[in-house]
Amino acid sequence: MLTLAGPAAANAPPLRGAATHPLWVDSSVADFDRELDLLVAAGANTVRIDIGWSTLEQDGNNQLNLPYIQKADTFFAHARTRNLRVIATFFTTPCWASRAPPEAKLGCATGWWDRGVGYYPPINVADFADAAAWVAQRWGDDMAAIEIWNEPNYIGWFNTPTPEVDYVAMLRAAYPRIKAVKPALPVLGPAMLASDAPFLAKLYAAGIGGYFDGLSLRPFNQGRDPYDITLPPFGAAHVYLTGVPWVREIMIANGDAAKRMWFTELGWSSCAPGTSVWCITPDLQARYLGDAFRIIRDRWDYVESVSVYNLRNKGTDPLDRESQMGLLQRDFTPKPSYFAFRDVLAEIAAQPFPLPPPSAVEPAAPPRKRDRTRPVLSRLAVSVRKGGRALDVSYRLSEPSRVVLRLEQATTRRGCRRRCVRWVAARRPSVQTGRRGSNRDRLRLSGSRPGRYRLLASARDRAGNRSALRRAPFSTR
């Protein structure tokens, strides 16, 4: 039996939760109440759901599905009583509005939703905008954000030969209508599958700029370690550690540096290893999820929200990647990843500050009187031993502090001659408890390649004051 606890401390990063599907026909009120309670017990403060336009107005324009609305009303009310804000993804086109071909629509006879009709863009984007505004008007006060569509860069969810043009047209129509009824409600787009920077660049070229408040994406890493930067067969968009900054660069290049990123899906599947490149063990699912949150805290201060995908398994088939992505089994039994989720939210609430960014450059400053409120980390030195398999690290501290040691290796892009050195993580950061005076630690380098390295070190004392960042370059053979 799980004991319910209150949400994480108020100084935790603002929006953290998981995806659920409370409005699906196989989800009862008792089911979604149980899911909401488990989110609260984990320390979450948001829940992400999907609202289907195809169900809301399935019988015709302005013909509202009252049972569906009543179920949604109940869900929003129950989330509100638990202090959970809702991130709602609004998508799927009803048959009467869909641009699907006649052979798929078949006159909108029974079963059209099984023929993929809902995944085509609407004939008239104003119809979609009206429905999105209705959703915002009715439930917007309980929402943290409304997300427009679901993965338009994947033909399975957005069936059109011109996804960039059609998606931008929908967003440009919906954004002002939503803002007219709920000016403070954040509108998210483009809900991309993976860190698809080239698709985002095409969206900007098609005119997406100025029509979203936060950039949403799903930076999946398949079944790989979130610290793994090797290039998978599916391409650079599926590398978590480097893909997210790649997307960020496109935002900055198009004048959106002030906008924040929302991870509306992020997760791993505990399907049977060997079945798919996505499938890993439940223990790895737990470890990777915790590390993904720590990477966000330590490196990406521009991430506003993270919704794990998803809270509960969609099914029971151990070979099915999609059905095994939950933190809970279908029968609500927690997996190791649920406890990892709970623990990392508590950890971030207790230590919300970021570690020094990996590419930070310590600014030059004129000599001044030392600020005695900050810890001083000095005399950082590194010696390589055991044929490059281990490092002896030494440093001095002015007071007891928490010390973070980050190891990075220099890489050079192929075919590039000038200004091509890039520093990437060579292993996960090491956190040590340092005492006043001299300290020594040892870092193991098993699996690291010969080359140029640097060790970054910083300290934070019990009061939260942080030292200057120190560097120690070295090489291994």
Written account of the structure:
Helix 5 (125-139) packs parallel to helix 6, helix 6 crosses helix 7 (197-206) and helix 9 runs parallel beside helix 10 (336-350). The chain contains ten helices and 16 strands. The protein has helices at residues 29-42, 53-56, 66-81, 102-105, 125-139, 163-181, 197-206, 240-253, 282-299, 336-350, and strands at 15-19, 46-52, 85-91, 143-148, 187-193, 214-218, 260-266, 303-308, 377-385, 390-397, 401-412, 421-425, 430-434, 437-444, 451-460, 470-476. The chain has 477 residues and is of the alpha/beta class. The chain has two domains: 15-350, TIM Barrel (Alpha-Beta Barrel); 377-476, Immunoglobulin-like. It has an eight-stranded parallel β-barrel with strand order 1-2-3-4-5-6-7-8, surrounded by four helices.
Distance between the termini: 53 Å
Give unreliable regions as ranges: 1-12, 358-372
| Count of the separate structural domains | 2
Radius of gyration (Å): 24 Å
Strand content: 15-25%
Kindly report the average pLDDT value. 88
What are the salient characteristics of this protein?
477 residues; TIM Barrel; disordered N terminus; Immunoglobulin-like
